[in-house]
Amino acid sequence: MPTTIPHESTLDDAISLISEGYPYIKNRLEKYNSNIFETRLLGEKAVCIHGKDAAQLFYDNTLFWRKNVVPKRVQQTLMGKNGVQMLDDKAHYHRKALFMSFMSRDRIEELMRLLMRYWRAYARKWEKMDRVILLDEASEIFCLAACHWAGVPLKPSEVRQRAEEYMAMIYGFGGITTRYWRGVQARKRSESWNEQIINDIRSGKLHVPESSAAYQIAWFRDLDGELLSTEVAAVELMNVVRPIVAIATYVAYSALALHQHPEQEHKLNTRGEEYLQHFVQEVRRMYPFTPLLGARPRHEFEWSGYTFKEGTLVLLDVYGLLHDPEIWPQPEEFKPDRFKDWSGSPFDFIPQGGGEFDTNHRCAGEWITIEAMKASLKFLTRELHYIVPPQNLRVDISKMPTKPASGFVIAEVKYVG
Ligand code: HEM
Fold it and tell me: What is the pLDDT of residues 124-140, one digit of tens each?
């Protein structure tokens, strides 16, 4: 028998979502003692769901699709229009295969080589600096490595500007005024830069390696046999470089975790690759990045005694799942060893989405993220000496997306690699 589910009685809860941030869904689930509730966001009904079973439901392609899910403000900042995130069914599988083709072992190793080269070059520069904002510098390092790897030409004079544009897009969607507009402007500038690159590759003015993402995207044909429009190809090229730049945030969180848990450094140095893997998994679980994900039912169905109506906005509680004490006991404690016993389920550890890589919208770059975090962490612990001066390291979870307030400042840097 269908039942009624708890619902927020406010006219529109968008302001509460923006002001409470990451724990918005969790706060209400606790209030209602339920894994589901209904609310209204930006003028439409939304059903928020929580838990491993909810994630499994959410990634069932026979029940949900992504049509008309991404709000305009996210398209104008983070994602752009008509990229892989917004496709369904065969069109999605076909486009997703393009992204997954960049994720071979050889291509990932090549990216890691580039990344290390830029980490080391920057470390020598930092020795001469009084203080280094790790997040800003890492965003440049990741931008350089990503552009080089993806076949995107980047002049030394524009590295800072392009890295800042990508970071503004990543941090723009949750802002209300300045942060949001900075994101919108950054996307406009970056889209026209990437459109120019696609046009130059297609006209023969720019030669890039055939194995590069820029080449593959420029010459990719959709299911109708046509090349992507310049605009969509640029959005997809940005869908490769931008999220690689985003990994800088996870690097800042890794450095923060090391600082907050000094005993971890010894463990990292003595307990081998498996511990390193568990450490970065724990960083991706514990520190906030993706707050929630949206989809819409393709048709009416029942779950947990509740009728999901066709087209209703359904939001999956990503942050809440990563902090659910039933799945992750003492979730606010940093315990990499918890991953020794993790089953590897695609539905309970979803910092970058869940389900399958090829047929669901799970992040195409999850392997790159993990490898880049591990390489960066090794670099920070084995090749660099630094101190962490007093600063504001607070991670404000009422802001989406968030980061350590100071960007994680280091000083007295010595490269010892
Ligand atoms: C999708 C997070 C790094 C490429 C996603 C999704 C999330 C996510 C939450 C959506 C999952 C869903 O809708 O179900 C992150 C985070 C990253 C990261 C937090 C690191 C900070 C990367 C990297 C790449 C990448 C390094 C590529 C080089 C993509 C693509 C999609 C995606 C192409 C769309 C997949 C699809 O729609 O099928 N990511 N990602 N991401 N990510 Fe990532």
Answer: 999 999 999 999 999 99
